[in-house]
Write a structure and sequence with these properties.
The structure is a single chain. The protein is an alpha+beta fold. The protein has a 5-stranded mixed sheet, with helices on both faces. The protein has 9 helices and 5 strands, in the order αααααααββαβαββ. It has 2 domains: 127 residues, 5' to 3' exonuclease, C-terminal subdomain (DNA polymerase, domain 1), CATH 1.10.150; 117 residues, 3-Layer(aba) Sandwich (Cytidine Deaminase, domain 2).
């Protein structure tokens, strides 16, 4: 099963507002020299201050749907660099990483390869990533995941789609198919992650889980299952059946879409 992903711009994001009091137009942030727009006296031109006000007003009035990625990124950067024009930095980040989702998901080391990015910018972007993951997880925690499948897929994509290494997670469900635990069982390289079926089943027994959903990502972006994926899944399925535990599905998360073992007839 595959489906196209929504733009990251459609997801609700935090709005960071810079100071509006005296001195709000003065460039004092340590990152400001790499961000354009300051006048010789250190103040921002009025058009930049007005631009910030207009962006905030548009977001509050109409939400994110009508705003392009670079404008949403500007809103985030206002909190990190409150006294400079951040539009050039927003565009530089998007040029480097491709889209807003990739910017938010980039590692601190990767982000700092872009001129103008320091700890303040990294902190704001990583906070946005953490909040997006918490929001997506809250939509599936303690709810029947079978009837909230789209929310579950959104959560998996938010948590794993942009990781540069393979991760293997297990979603443990109770008798009502509500999520009782989401645990990372392994982290590997760009194309491999070690998975131990015995450990997966041992943990399921500890949690008194009645069902499982396996999830892992393919950093290459292609969610097509490998033969190793198929073999490992079959081992877990056989062990789970012996313990009266249901394996609902194994999802492979790619950059833009996912593959479902059940939909592919592999379960």
């Amino acid at each position: 099963m595959t489906r196209q992903r929504r733009s990251f711009a459609e997801m609700p994001m935090p709005l960071f507002a810079g100071p509006e009091g005296p001195g709000a137009g003065t460039v004092t942030d340590a990152l400001a020299p790499s961000v354009s727009g300051a006048l010789p006296d250190g103040r921002l031109p009025s058009y930049i201050r007005d631009h910030r006000k207009r962006l905030r007003a548009r977001f509050l009035d109409g939400g994110a749907a009508a705003m392009p990625d670079y404008e949403l990124l500007e809103l985030l950067l206002f909190g990190a660099i409150p006294r400079a024009d951040v539009k050039p930095l927003a565009r530089a980040l998007l040029d480097r990483f491709g889209d807003l989702a990739a910017v938010i998901s980039a590692t601190p080391v990767q982000l700092k390869t872009v001129d103008g990015v320091g700890d303040a910018v990294v902190g704001v972007l990583k906070l946005a990533e953490a909040m997006a993951a918490r929001l997506a997880r809250a939509k599936v925690l303690n709810r029947p995941v079978i009837s909230s499948w789209d929310a579950l897929l959104d959560y998996c994509h938010t948590a794993m789609a942009h990781s540069e290494t393979e991760q293997f997670r297990v979603l443990f469900l109770d008798r009502k198919n509500a999520l009782i635990a989401d645990e990372q069982q392994g982290r590997g390289t760009v194309d491999h992650v070690p998975v131990y079926p015995r450990e997966v089943l041992r943990r399921a027994l500890e949690l008194n889980a009645s069902a499982l959903i396996l999830v892992h990502n393919h950093p290459s972006g292609d969610p097509q299952p490998s033969q190793a994926d198929i073999t490992m899944t079959d081992q877990i399925r056989c062990g789970a059946e012996a313990l009266s535990i249901t394996l609902h599905d194994h999802l492979i998360i790619g950059r833009e879409r996912e593959a479902s073992f059940r939909s592919l007839g592999l379960l």
